[in-house]
Amino acid sequence: MIFTIAAKELKILFSGPMAWIILAVLEIILAWFFLNQVDAFLAIQPQLTALANPPGVTELIVTPLFGNAAIILLMAVPLLSMRLIAEERRNQTLNLLLSAPVSVSEIILGKFLGLMAFLCLFIGLAALMSLSLYAGATLDLGLLAGNIVGLALLAASFAALGLFISSLTAHPIIAAIGSFGALLGLWIINMSAHDADSWLNTLSLMKHFESFNRGIIASADAAYFLLFIALFLVLAVRRLDNDRTHG
């Protein structure tokens, strides 16, 4: 049932122009960053040949590309997650959904996975851009894999938070603003932590992504993302469960 709900959510996303427009805009922005990084690499390539151990295309092109993709997702996910529950509540179809023979957990997980399928499409296209460099260079596949895993975990965290905030309101625009404000706040925490050992770094999603961006898959960072995702999915389940209990 979870995958049925996920497929329905994905179908709803692509049935209207908004998802197509967002995906097209995201890919145009990402392609612009990618081509700029390629041009910058080609410009400094003569200087790199003089170094004993120069950085490769993965460090100079792929790593910044995925760093930019993380910022792009921070701005895009609130627009994609805003309607997940809020629109059901606004259209007064939420009670019908809650009265169906399906658990609240399945509803939340289905909607979450539907959004994640869309976000994985964006991440996959970013990975394909990176793999296109194989045509003329050698890639560090370990570093690329770390970036893909890190960006997927970051996107899932954004989606879980956006889904929870969408469950709090009947207005998708308010849900989008709330999600963006929360994600922006977590990003500001990252920029405010000048000390590398500051406790603020523990709260920052972007700070935990940085280790993946460097190709380091740290268990502590992965655990933080998984706990963050689980926390907001559980909160969303409890919010809908309260709606089902109290009508």
Explained architecture:
- The relative contact order is 0.14.
- The chain has one domain.
- The longest helix has 32 residues, at 17-48.
- It contains 11 helices and no strands.
- With 247 residues, it is mainly alpha-helical.
- 80% of the residues lie in helices and 0% in strands.
- The chain is elongated and about 70 Å long.
Keywords summarizing the entry:
single chain, 247 residues, mainly alpha, 11 helices, 80% helix, 0% strand, elongated
Q: Termini separation (Å)?
A: 23 Å
Q: Please state the oligomeric state of the protein chains shown.
A: single chain
Number of domains: 1
Q: How much of the residues is beta strand, in percent?
A: under 5%
Q: Please, what is the average pLDDT? A: 87
* Structural class label: mainly alpha
Helix coverage percent: over 70%
Largest sheet entry: none
Number of helices: 11
Q: What string, H for helix and E for strand, traces the elements in order?
A: HHHHHHHHHHH
User: Low-confidence spans: pLDDT under 50, at least 5 residues?
Assistant: none
Radius of gyration: 20 Å
Query: Number of DSSP strands?
Result: 0
- Gross morphology: elongated
